[in-house]
């Protein structure tokens, strides 16, 4: 079986309000499924169910053929990353990244080696001894990313992780995510409300609306679908370009 | 043109008066106690002398009072912290269930004197619990009942302090738990592979203690200087610092006053030193 994750007929409701309706999709190793969705569409609930933090009302979750239903969140190897980095304020950058190894009782020399290696990769070596509140927003997000990567998760669940960053830092983080996820062959489900971000980070695309997930077979179909509003955005930028003087648009 | 609204300021004479009351007078009191301890101030001051300081070497009363107070404060605050952490980290549903949230506020409304009196009636050898045990045939007389108040280890004082302090700590930890988004930290650490116990030990506990440290320190100092409860539930020996100092200051023999001033001066100095050291430690923790 080549699928890393198979989700079949997943449903969830809170009280009488359905949040997820009959969701089915699968993910192969190394894929990044970018799911576009507006606030309240059910994306956080979907991620929490995959992470084991919420129980579904119906449906099955299989990871490499194994039923995830009875597996507690701390044994799933699926890290859920919030919009906020949520770094441990009482630990240094080094210790934040080392957290996953410490709780697994990895030997000290191995922790030192792996953490230093990852900090260098994330361009954080100079900040290893710093407290989280001495870092910028982008640096904090990188530490959070490193803390998740160090345990080599089989699936990363990202809930609008760059939503609180300024435009430039956000673009940098998207590039960093692309680079690292390709290098480490990370499989992820990346939820965002920004179509540009979805197109930047995704290798596959989905659209979640009122609890229903549509997975697109190709990027072309994702762009063509009116609900994703990608074409509207393209039209907007084209109209802006047409209003600019020729010299400005060529420069 | 409209002028910008300026924040109202406390008039400077009022601010100076407040500063004088909270800093100036205590410092003046400290200086007076120091001068009194060397014979330069007080009703029977007769010029500089070092004999009260030299007598410290032979008088162990102050040392025992300080040790006893330290033990009571450490035990009371320690037990209160442990109980509060246990409730907040292991019994969140119970904490939300009626009537516990309301009951937690009750001890906060009780004056220390009332709690001391209530515990004396409940736990003394002639108290309600001892009488109940006697009626049930569990003891043959008052001597058979364990010494729970006015005991050598200060169990009665510790019990009363815990009764007053742990609900406050519980409410404090609960507020910090919510404000620091510890529920989200819990979910995150679970997905990172931590067990619920590891989350409590490595994340929630240190985070709660770190955020609450200044309040815990203040509570420790308050317990160290408690008066009402040790007076009611403590023994004449060993005494807690406040009772020891009050006893010495109230003696009829005015010649004993310099020694009492000396004790007061040393206690105040010790507390100030403790505050300085802990504030420094806290700053270091924040920077690390």
Describe this structure in words.
The complex is a heterodimer of chains A (251) and B (288). Chain A has helices spanning 43-51, 93-102, 108-121, 137-149, 167-183, 195-201, 219-224, 230-243, 246-250, and strands at residues 5-14, 17-27, 32-37, 58-63, 66-67, 78-81, 155-159, 188-192, 204-209, 212-216. Chain A is an alpha/beta fold. In chain A, the strands form two sheets. Chain A has a six-stranded mixed β-sheet with strand order 6-7-8-3-9-10, with helices on both faces. In chain A, strands 2-1-4-5 form a four-stranded antiparallel β-sheet, with helices on one face. In chain A, a hairpin with a 2-residue loop joins strand 9 (204-209) and strand 10. In chain A, helix 2 crosses helix 3, helix 2 packs parallel to helix 4 and helix 4 runs parallel beside helix 5 (167-183). In chain B, helix 7 (112-123) crosses helix 9 (155-179). Chain B has a domain at 59-240: MetI-like (MetI-like fold). Chain B has 288 residues and is mainly α. Chain B is globular and about 70 Å long. The model of chain B has no long low-confidence stretch (mean pLDDT 87). At the A-B interface, strand 6 and helix 2 of A face helix 10, helix 11 and helix 14 of B. Chain B: Belongs to the binding-protein-dependent transport system permease family.
């Amino acid at each position: 079986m080549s699928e890393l994750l198979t989700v079949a007929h997943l449903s969830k409701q809170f009280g009488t309000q359905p949040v997820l309706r009959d969701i089915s999709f699968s993910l192969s190793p190394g894929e990044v499924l970018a799911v576009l969705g507006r606030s309240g569409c059910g994306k956080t609930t979907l991620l929490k169910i995959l992470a084991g933090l919420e129980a579904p009302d119906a449906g099955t979750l299989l990871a490499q053929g194994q039923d995830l239903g009875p597996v507690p969140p701390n044994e799933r190897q699926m890290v859920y990353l919030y919009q906020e980095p949520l770094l441990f304020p009482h630990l240094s950058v080094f210790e934040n990244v080392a957290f996953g190894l410490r709780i697994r009782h990895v030997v000290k020399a191995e922790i030192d080696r792996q953490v230093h290696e990852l900090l260098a990769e994330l361009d954080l070596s100079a900040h290893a001894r710093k407290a989280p509140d001495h870092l910028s927003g982008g640096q904090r997000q990188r530490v959070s990313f490193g803390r998740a990567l160090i345990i080599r998760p089989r699936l990363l669940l990202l809930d609008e992780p760059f939503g609180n960053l300024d435009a430039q830092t956000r673009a940098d983080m998207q590039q960093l995510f692309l680079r690292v996820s390709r290098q480490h062959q990370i499989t992820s489900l990346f939820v965002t409300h920004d179509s540009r971000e979805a197109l930047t980070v995704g290798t596959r695309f989905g659209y979640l609306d009122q609890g229903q997930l549509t997975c697109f077979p190709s990027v072309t179909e994702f762009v063509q679908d009116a609900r994703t509003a990608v074409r509207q955005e393209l039209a907007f930028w084209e109209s802006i370009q047409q209003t600019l003087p020729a010299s400005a648009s060529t420069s | 043109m409209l002028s910008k609204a300026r924040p109202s300021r406390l008039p400077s004479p009022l601010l100076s008066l407040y500063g004088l009351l909270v800093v100036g007078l205590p410092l003046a009191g400290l200086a007076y106690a120091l001068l009194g301890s060397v014979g330069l101030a007080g009703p029977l001051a007769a010029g500089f002398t070092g004999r009260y300081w030299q007598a410290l070497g032979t008088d162990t009363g102050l040392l025992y009072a300080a040790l006893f107070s330290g033990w009571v404060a450490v035990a009371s605050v320690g037990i209160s912290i442990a109980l509060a952490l246990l409730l907040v980290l292991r019994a969140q549903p119970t904490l939300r269930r009626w009537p516990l949230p309301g009951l937690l506020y009750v001890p906060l409304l009780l004056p220390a004197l009332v709690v001391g009196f209530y515990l004396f009636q409940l736990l003394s050898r002639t108290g309600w619990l001892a009488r109940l045990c006697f009626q049930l045939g569990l003891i043959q007389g008052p001597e058979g009942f364990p010494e729970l108040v006015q005991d050598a280890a200060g169990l009665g004082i510790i019990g009363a302090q815990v009764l007053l302090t742990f609900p406050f700590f519980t409410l404090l930890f609960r507020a910090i738990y919510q404000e620091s988004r510890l529920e989200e930290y819990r979910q995150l650490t679970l997905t990172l592979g931590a067990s619920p116990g590891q989350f409590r030990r490595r994340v929630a506990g240190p985070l709660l203690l770190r955020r609450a440290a200044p309040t815990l320190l203040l509570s420790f100092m308050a317990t160290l200087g408690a008066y009402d409860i040790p007076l009611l539930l403590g023994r004449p020996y060993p005494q807690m610092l406040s009772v020891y100092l009050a006893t010495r200051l109230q003696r009829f023999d005015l010649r004993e006053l310099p020694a009492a001033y000396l004790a007061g001066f040393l206690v105040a100095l010790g507390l100030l030193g403790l505050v300085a050291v802990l504030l420094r430690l806290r700053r270091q923790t924040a920077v690390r």
